[in-house]
Amino acid sequence: MATTKIVDWDKLEGRARSRRIFFQWTFIVPVAVLLIVVIMAIFAPLLAPYPYDQINMTDRFMPPFFMEEGSTSHILGTDNMGRDIMSRAIYGAQISLSVAAMVIAITASIGTALGIVSGYVGGRTDAFLMRVTDISLAFPAILIALLLAASIGPGYWTVVIAISILGWAPYARLIRGEALKLREADFVAQARIIGASPIRIMLKHIFPNIMNPLIIMVTLSVGMVILTEAILSYLGAGIPPPAASWGNMVNDGRTYIDTAWWISFFPGIAIGLVVLAGNFLGDWLRDKLDPRLRQI
Amino acid sequence: MTRFIIVRLLQTFVALIGISILIFVLVRVSGDPTDLFRTSSSTEEDIARIRHNLGLDKSIPEQYWIFVTDLAQGDLGESLLKRRPVTEMIVERLPNTLSLAVTSFFVSMLLALFLGILGATRRDTFWDNGVKFIAILGQALPGFWVAIMAILLFSVYWQIFPPMGTGGFMHYVLPVATMAFFLLPGMMRLVRSSMLDVLDSEYIKLARIKGLPERIIIWKHALRNALIAPLTAAGMIFAMLITGMVVTEQVFAWPGIGRLIIEALFARDFPVVQGVTLMVGAAVLLINLLVDILYAYIEPQIRYQQM
């Protein structure tokens, strides 16, 4: 099956090339979803029709607008305390995103630092750090989270710390592999010859060259962190009520699943959409920036 | 091989100590665990007595020593709420957890093998895309939510399966399906990619040239070697299994260890939370040790590489 190339897209410069790269559904849709969620989180007080904790006992269990008895005053219905589900879902974006941002900031910095040191220094340091990384990768974060929740009580920082304690490991693993390759690169050898200190080499020569895998990893972990936060909040070890987290909203509806399915349904859809968007964007970035990294 | 096992055993032992320290510190990170018992009517004397009973009036290294020596004797402390040894409570719940975990593991593994091989052998067809689609959904949708939606459909609307509790075969269906939701995507991707690698290798080409039937090539020649790579990820799969168990037991009110730890969390019964965490943590390390040894046994290169 022979195909004739009419236009060699790879050789086109400027706008045509960037159009080809960015005008793809696998890029536009995830970015749009994530942008909407970010806007929801930032402007929650303006966008939400009701405060997230406004209890209204006369309007309990109102179904979404498209069902009988539903009304457009509560588009996605109300929960067991008459709180507006759409408003709570909008505020829920704040929690999901702020947990994700904080956890990723912490884990990416620690993981990258350890990964570079491990890969560049090598030897016993490397063997030790990688052993710790292996154990951290195999240890379920949920146990640490439950323990912390029992000791300092559930809350924002409990979730952030609990996910971060083990969350640096995938970064360290990936970055270490990259650093190991870069250590043998010519420009690193030259830097060493002209007498650059190891710290300078790691910061100025290795770090800028691991940016691509790092960006890919950060994007791919957005979904994972949001999912973990949701699991913890669902179990009661995450963000406690009355704050609206998608995970604890699903939990609110568990008891009423036979009469009011919408309480659990919509927050779950929100989680699924955001995680899906994050994963797709991560995959897209990986294919564009570093296709070798298929495994992560 | 002996040297490899000894080194790994020592490393596991060190890791065990590391995790016991981590858990010891995390439990005390709040400063004073007696805050948890303080009620409006408790006097300073009550608090002092509790401190003494829990051994909190001793120095930190001394406390850790007592904690570790008790542990070595299999003593995980006593539940604050039930006034029973934590070990006893765990042992009581263990059969429920094991029966669900083992069933789910084998069901998921069989499905993962079947679907992973289906995806790899019919690459880029309808079947392969279907497998990828399941994997993508499975990694994005929260398991607890899927479980609740399954209850809505199968227990509330169609009333096929019971929504909670233990009992006969029917009680297993929804929890096992939920567990498969946690385990399947990762397992399936591993089998698929490792199968693709193996199918590409020289000896498979040779088997094809020899004229062996495709069925034998795939299930006998390729599968054996394709299973080695997923084995290295067994530790991570075990971690997913634990997360899945805690969530599934909670959703379906399944009286196992996962449910025990959540109940203890709500009652702020921290010796139970600590005990379960320690036990499961030790199990995680042990599984990883066994997998490492098994892996080194199957793949001799490893014995020398990863010292």
SSE layout:
The complex is a heterodimer of chains A (296) and B (307).
Chain A: H1 14-22, H2 25-42, H3 44-47, H4 85-121, H5 123-138, H6 141-152, H7 156-167, H8 169-183, H9 186-193, H10 198-206, H11 211-235, H12 246-254, H13 262-289
Helix pairs in contact in A: 2-4, 2-13, 4-5, 4-7, 4-8, 4-11, 4-13, 5-8, 6-7, 9-10, 11-12, 11-13, 12-13
Chain B: H1 2-28, H2 44-54, H3 60-72, H4 86-121, H5 126-140, H6 143-157, H7 169-199, H8 202-209, H9 214-226, H10 228-232, H11 234-251, H12 257-266, H13 270-298, H14 301-305
Helix pairs in contact in B: 1-13, 4-5, 4-7, 5-7, 6-7, 6-11, 7-9, 7-11, 11-12, 11-13, 12-13
Concise description?
The complex is a heterodimer of chains A (296) and B (307). Chain A is an all-alpha fold and 296 residues long.
Kindly describe this structure.
The complex is a heterodimer of chains A (296) and B (307). Chain A has 296 residues and is mainly alpha-helical. Chain A has a domain at 84-289: MetI-like fold (Orthogonal Bundle). Chain A is built from 13 helices and no strands. Chain A is globular, with a radius of gyration of 23 Å. Chain A starts with 13 loop residues before the first helix and ends in a 7-residue tail after the last helix. The mean pLDDT of chain A is 87. Chain B is mainly alpha-helical. Chain B has 14 helices and no strands. Chain B has helices at residues 2-28, 44-54, 60-72, 86-121, 126-140, 143-157, 169-199, 202-209, 214-226, 228-232, 234-251, 257-266, 270-298, 301-305. In chain B, helix 1 packs antiparallel against helix 13 (270-298) and helix 11 (234-251) packs across helix 12 (257-266). The longest helix of chain B is centred in the middle third of the chain and has 36 residues, at 86-121. Chain B is flat. Chain B starts with a helix and ends with a helix. The mean pLDDT of chain B is 84. Classes of the chains: A mainly alpha (296), B mainly alpha (307). The interface between A and B is large, with 48 and 55 residues.
